[in-house]
Design brief:
This protein has 6 helices and 13 strands. By secondary structure, it is α+β, with helices and mostly antiparallel strands. The chain has 2 domains: about 130 residues, no CATH class; about 70 residues, no CATH class. The relative contact order is 0.19.
Length: about 230
């Protein structure tokens, strides 16, 4: 038996994301990284998500969150040149922040502070808020569920009989076109001091540098005209 046969196997670290003060996001655990974009109708309505690319990574990598990198989505240390500062102020839990919208046969909840304005919550004729009072109709209820399940940030959620229902999502990060980083699969997110934000099945992280709720996205990329070039 060779020495190689008896050497202990090197374990891959568990997936995790660490927010570097005034710097990037450090991703550990060989988390798959993709590019995804919203597919829209002829009326500009978001319909579904399309995965356009799997981005090559090597176990541990760092992602830009200042919006200035020339190597997006990866960090190139532009944050240092730009004097980027991060006040990672996201606090509390979804249960504490969300409002209950009601529903029949379903309970819909909404947290406006983490909305990224992806647009899947509505169409040119209706939206989740208009449909919630009509959920006694199972067809409407199914439409509301479909809209909520495409919400990347988890700002909108639903419950049956008090139990939260979430789609089974992989542990992965998606770089959305001109938008935030979409983290799925309950990957822990913490700062360098070990302070964690709530671990959720789906969450979106700022990468334009403008969010007032860092490291979470608050939709500011729309207001500042962030372009992922």
């Amino acid at each position: 038996m060779s020495e190689a046969d008896t050497a202990p196997a090197t374990e891959t670290p568990s997936p995790s994301i660490t927010t570097v003060p005034n710097g990037p996001l450090a991703v550990n655990g060989d988390v798959a990284l993709y590019r995804r974009r919203a597919v829209t109708s002829e009326h500009g309505e978001p319909l579904t998500w399309e995965t356009t690319e799997r981005i090559e990574t090597r176990g541990r990598y760092v992602l830009c969150r200042c919006g200035q990198s020339e190597r997006k989505p990866f960090c190139d240390r532009s944050h240092a040149k730009a004097g980027f500062t991060t006040d990672d102020t996201a606090t509390g839990t979804y249960d504490e922040r969300s409002n209950e919208l009601g529903g029949t046969g379903i309970t819909v909840r909404d947290d406006r502070t983490i909305c990224v304005h992806a647009g899947f919550c509505g169409s040119r004729v209706t939206n989740v808020w208009k449909q919630v009072p009509e959920t006694a109709d199972s067809t409407v209820r199914a439409q509301v569920i479909a809209m909520i399940e495409r919400c990347p940030s988890g700002a909108l959620t639903y419950r049956f009989d008090g139990d939260d229902i979430e789609a089974l999502l992989p542990q992965a990060i998606a770089v959305t076109d001109d938008g935030p980083l979409w983290v799925t699969g309950s990957i822990p997110i913490a700062d360098t001091d070990g302070r964690s934000i709530e671990t959720r099945n789906r969450v979106t992280l700022c990468r334009c540098g403008a969010s007032a709720n860092k490291p979470l996205c608050d939709g500011s990329h729309k207001a500042v005209g962030f372009i992922d070039d």
